[in-house]
Amino acid sequence: MVNRVVDIAEKFSLFSEHWSPKVVATLNDYDIKLVRIKGEFVWHSHDNTDELFLVTEGRLTIQLRDGDVTLRSGQLYVVPRGVEHCPIADGEVQAMLIEPTGVVNTGSAGGPLTATHDNSLMG
Amino acid sequence: MVNRVVDIAEKFSLFSEHWSPKVVATLNDYDIKLVRIKGEFVWHSHDNTDELFLVTEGRLTIQLRDGDVTLRSGQLYVVPRGVEHCPIADGEVQAMLIEPTGVVNTGSAGGPLTATHDNSLMG
């Protein structure tokens, strides 16, 4: 078989840092990433792509300029391209992100939370 | 806010038929679909795209020509483009599929299980 099964909980057991998405699979030119979230991120947008958030553990709020979206485990939300957003979580959240390969997590905002491409948990 | 939160379990409560994927969100030109699976599908492939399966309930086997892949809840697998596959499940499975909009579920195999685009559960 060409690819391997990805067990989401098992992959999360392999890292503990926050705001550091790990690519666990690819779908054409998209990355499937897992990320641990805690605290507040930075306001940013992605001009050229939507971004999917699927929460698998915990409770995530995605702040938008016109209101907040709150996701629990088993809920997903797609942030439309160009829409400013800022994830925030009181407790720890485990989430899956899907977006095209090469998208920078902080968009054009930059700053210390900017993550590098990390596919160390692939395969 | 522009999009709505998708609660996967709540969406599954709205339909009961098998092999009839429902689009619940879009991500750029990709569809996020939910499908109930039971029994055996048809061998097929998608020449131009990978296909992501994420199981949220039950136990799904994806038969491949060189071996089976079995997924439980919380596990995902990407069938590479061009790879023949045939999903099969003894019990009922609830799964999320992600693939580009317009991909036909039976690929080039056709037949009675071919589904039409159904976005009646969007929004």
Write the layout of secondary structure elements.
Two copies of one chain form a homodimer.
Chain A: E1 6-7, H1 8-12, E2 22-27, E3 30-40, E4 51-57, E5 59-64, E6 67-72, E7 75-79, E8 85-100
Description:
The structure is a homodimer of 123-residue chains. Chain A contains one helix and eight strands, in the order βαβββββββ. Chain A is mainly beta and 123 residues long. In chain A, β2 (22-27) and β3 (30-40) form a beta hairpin. The first copy, chain A, is globular and about 45 Å long. The mean pLDDT of chain A is 96. At the A-B interface, β1, β2, β4, β6 and β7 of A face β1, β2, β4, β6 and β7 of B. β7 of chain A pairs antiparallel with β1 of chain B.
**Sheet with the most strands of chain A?**
7 strands, antiparallel
Oligomer: homodimer
What is the straight-line distance between the termini of chain A? 12 Å
The rounded Rg of chain A comes to 14 Å
Structural class of chain A: mainly beta
Strand content of chain A: over 45%
Shape of chain A: globular
What letter string, H or E per element, gives the SSE order of chain A?
Answer: EHEEEEEEE
**Could you give the count of β-strands of chain A?**
8
In percent, how helical is the residue content of chain A? under 10%
> Largest interface here, residues on each chain?
A-B, 38 and 38 residues
Low-confidence stretches of chain A: none
> Count the helices of chain A. How many?
1
